[in-house]
Amino acid sequence: MMKYRSLVVGTCLSLIVLIAAALSFVWIPYDITQLSIPNKLQTPNWNHWLGTDHFGRDILSMIMVGARTSLAVALLAVGIGMGIGVPLGLAAAVRKDALLDEVIMRTNDLIFAFPSLVIAILITALFGAGAINAIIAIGIFNIPVFARVSRGAALSIWQKEFILAAKVSGKSKFRISAEHILPNLTNLLIVQGTIQFSLGILAEAGLSYVGLGAQPPTPSWGRMLADAQTMVSFAPHLALIPGSAIILTVLGLNLIGDGLRDALDPKLRKSRQ
Fold first, then answer.
1. CATH topology of domain 2-20+60-272
2. Which of 42, 78, 121, 167 has the most C-beta neighbours closer than 10 Å?
3. pLDDT for 106-140, tens place per residue?
4. Extents of the domains making up the chain
5. Is the dihedral of CA 110, 112, 114, 117 positive or negative?
C-alpha cells in the first residue's frame, strides 16, 4: 500500500470529483438557474455549505455541475487526441524516415511551436465560444502529444524478437501494429492519458475564464473564477472554492499518473523491491 500511496491518494481525490459530477445528474442541493438576490454573497453556513455567489446561487451546486462540465470537456478532448494521435504515431513508426513519417512529425513540431492555450483561444474565438469548440480546440493539441509518444515507443518495440517473428509469419506491418505494437503501448497510453486529462481540465478552466468555454447558464469552474475576480477582497470564498476544486482535481489526476507509471513500469517496480 505504501508503495502506491500516490495512486491511492490520487484515486481518492479523483473519486470525490467523479462522484460529485455523477451525483449532479440526479441531485443538487439547489437549482442553479434560480437567482436569490437576498441570499447573495453568503459565507459557508448550514443552509449553503460552501456559501452563495453574487446572484445568490448555491456554490456547492455549481461546483458539482461544474465538475461535470470540466470532466466531460477534458475526457472528450483526450479521446480526440488519443483516437487520432495514436494511429498517426503508429503509422509514422511503420514508415520511419519515409515521407509519411516526415509529414506527421513535422506537422507535430509545427503545432508544438505555438502556445497551446493561446491557439485554443484563437480557435474558439474564430468559431464561436462554447463547450463543443473548446473540446475541439483542446483535442487538437492532444493529437501531436499522443502521436509523438506512440511513435517513440513503437520504434523500440519494432526491434523486438517477437516482432521479427511476426514479420516472418507473413503479417503486414499495419497488422503487426494493430495486433502486437498497440497492446504493448497500453500502459504508456493510460499514463499519458491521465496527464493530458489533467491538462485538459486546466485548459477548459482557462478558456472558460476568458469567456470562450461553456456558456451560461452552464456552470464552469473557470467562469466562476472570472466572476469572482472583482469580489475577492470582500468575498474570497468565491475564488477560493472553484480554485481549490481545480487544484485538487488536477493534483489527483497527476498523482494517479505517477502512481500508474510506478505500478506499470517494470523497471521502476523492480527498483522499488
1. MetI-like fold (1.10.3720)
2. 78
3. 999 988 888 877 878 888 878 888 888 889 989 99
4. 2-20+60-272
5. positive
